Amino acid sequence: MKFSNFARMHWSALRALLVLTVIIGLAYPAFVWLVAQLPGLRDKAEGSIVTAGGRPVGSRLIGQLFTDRDGNPLPQYFQSRPSAAGTGYDPLSSGAGNLGPESIVDLPGKPSLLTQVCARGAAVAKQEGVNGSRPFCTGGGVGAVLSVIGPRDARGSVVRPARVVSVNEPCQMTSTPFLTSYEGVRVECAESGVDYSIGQIVPIRGAAPADPAVPADAVTASGSGLDPNISPAYADLQVARVARARHVAADQIREVVARHRSGRALGFFGEPAVNVLELNLELDRMYPVRSQRAGG
């Protein structure tokens, strides 16, 4: 190849690089930024930040904690949906816990999804003063799961249990498993570090109602881990506690909740929801609690 052709080709490539850099790297971002400054768009482009007393306290698009310095829920505030994003509501670690319906057996230092649900349900029930029983959960707030050990049939089902272990209840935690016996065999608590996968894993539904008092969004994290909303059912569950903490009637709190309840998008997308941050901020304005402020 002649040097003149070589130089001409590279000069063309360099010109294309410069033109595209100006258009895509400078002009387009500048155009998008200018459009974002238009009335009605600026707030959304800036992150939908909510302020209180002149300082930012959060975003209406991202959930957050309403706890004290020790991580205990503040009783005067509605609590958010659980989060699996980083240490909680971390936009840089947005995502789910990647645990599915088959995650029912706890591992060392890693509770199963079932136990996480059971533990959250028990904690919320204690805080709100309701019955926290859930299907497939023990009274102690772990997954009610047995390992049934014994000879199996052609389909892999145990035909005659020889030993039964409550796999999510280590003997350090309890000496009395949630179930006394299973098919005539005494249920044992699990020994630490022992693998019981040799047995048939059997979840036990128990006598809990199909519709627990603690709703699903109170015990499960959203897909993003950043959900700023809770269901109306979870909001209703918290009304009595918040009313006591703020020394007002429950109906007064319900009126504020109703103002922050949104319907389905376009009438059919999603579910009705309540924005927790905006709700707590209005409660602070209307029924303040001395020395406490919203924003976690």
What does this structure look like?
Belongs to the KdpC family. The chain has 296 residues and is α+β, with helices and mostly antiparallel strands. Helices cover 30% and strands 14% of the residues. Strands 5-6-4-3-7 form a five-stranded mixed sheet, with no helix packed on it. Strands 8-10-9 form a three-stranded antiparallel sheet. The chain has a two-stranded antiparallel sheet with strand order 1-2. Strand 5 and strand 6 (185-190) form a beta hairpin. It is flat and about 90 Å long.
Properties at a glance:
transport; 14% strand; KdpC; 30% helix; ATP-binding; flat; 296 residues; cell membrane
Topology:
Layout: H1 3-36, H2 42-45, E1 49-52, E2 55-59, H3 113-128, E3 145-149, E4 163-170, E5 181-182, E6 185-190, E7 200-203, E8 229-230, H4 232-246, H5 250-259, E9 261-262, E10 273-275, H6 276-286
Parallel strand pairs: 4-6
Antiparallel strand pairs: 1-2, 3-4, 3-7, 5-6, 8-10, 9-10
Helix pairs in contact: 4-5
| Strands ordered across the widest β-sheet | 5-6-4-3-7
Helix content: 25-40%
Query: What characteristic shape results from the CA principal axes?
Result: flat
Enumerate how many helices there are, as a single number. Answer: 6
Order of helices and strands: HHEEHEEEEEEHHEEH
Alpha carbon gap, first and last residue: 68 Å
Number of beta-strand segments: 10
Rg from Cα: 27 Å
Family: Belongs to the KdpC family.
GO molecular function: ATP binding
InterPro entries: KdpC
Membrane topology: Single-pass membrane protein
